[in-house]
Amino acid sequence: MITELASAAGGLNDRLTELLENVEARLQAAVRSPEPDIDELTRHLAAAGGKRLRPALCGLTSFLGPDAANAETEISATVVELTHLATLYHDDVMDDAPMRRGVVSAQQLAGNSAAILAGDVLFAKASSLVAQLGPEAVKLHAVTFERLCFGQLRETLGAPDDVSPRDNYIHVLAEKTGSLIAASARYGVLSSNGSPEHADAVAEFGERVGVAFQLADDVIDIMSDGDVTGKTPGTDLREGVETMPILLLKERAAAGVIDEDGQRILDLLAGDLGDDTVDESVALLRGHEVMDDVRALAREWSDSAIDVLDPIPDGEVKDGLVAFARLMVDRIS
């Protein structure tokens, strides 16, 4: 995915690739700890790899300013990836996830308390790095961290009485995923002394892309081949998480327009979430038209992200941003 993004950026390819190599070196250094047992835990997920989408977006948007791909850009990109990694440690504890990025999750490795604290260490390391970038960058980091936490809280507590489940879900996606992607895009412009107008535009782009990305993940959770992805289909269903396909089915049920298979899915998920129940639900969902509705929603959010790029001048950066948005949903074609 990063290769495709760099390719879309045309003449920026070599510089973007070099920047990401430097960021990876900074990241691997940042996750190290002086005590061996703690070091094993804090570098666990960084060593397992990952897409590095957020650093790539930060690097790409830095080319909107006059001082692109500099040391501040590298630090900014490292900060957003450290923050992302920290949230994964915490998410895996809350979800009791056995695996992450093809390796045993941190809490399976060392227990919940140690995994939470390892995530906290990474948050602290990100905060220490961002302090080098000045007050504006520090404030952006703090606001983004707050939004990440609010998003997780809202997902945990459920929708307020005056908010529909669908609207609440989109809000959670924007807070939990969109906020950090938005910050990644904004950091790139800030680090290269770009204009406030460009920073605002790419931040809004990033937030919408984040929602599109998660909606695409809702499709992948149902439609993916576990032997290929390494992720068991229906993972969210097994955890009792109501993602967009289920929310849309519930809307149909409330409106009295749900079909037999859709009602069967809801009835199954209202009971014991054993393997047989989830497997039957996944099989029914794979053949249900509601999955096309979720694909369409993901594409709508991706298209809306591209629509806010009008202030960005035509050229390699804009081409790369459009490619970035398209890549989020091309995974579900």
Q: What best-fitting shape do the alpha-carbon axes yield? A: globular
CATH class of the largest domain: Mainly Alpha
CATH topology label of the largest domain: Farnesyl Diphosphate Synthase
Main pleated sheet: 2 strands, antiparallel
Low-confidence runs: none
Beta-strand share of residues: under 5%
Number-wise, the strands total 2
Mean pLDDT: 93
Relevant CATH superfamily of the largest domain: Farnesyl Diphosphate Synthase
Named CATH architecture of the largest domain = Orthogonal Bundle
- Summing up helix and strand content along with how strands pair, one would put the structural category as mainly alpha
Q: Note the run of SSEs as H and E.
A: HHHHHHEEHHHHHHHHHHHH
Helix percent band: over 70%
Strand order of the largest sheet: 1-2
N-end to C-end Cα span: 15 Å
Counted by DSSP, the helix tally is 18
Q: Provide the number of structural domains.
A: 2
Alpha-carbon Rg, integer = 20 Å
Cofactor: Mg(2+)
Protein name: Polyprenyl synthetase family protein
Family: Belongs to the FPP/GGPP synthase family.
Organism: Flaviflexus salsibiostraticola
Keywords:
two-stranded antiparallel ribbon, 333 residues, 18 helices, globular, Farnesyl Diphosphate Synthase, mainly alpha
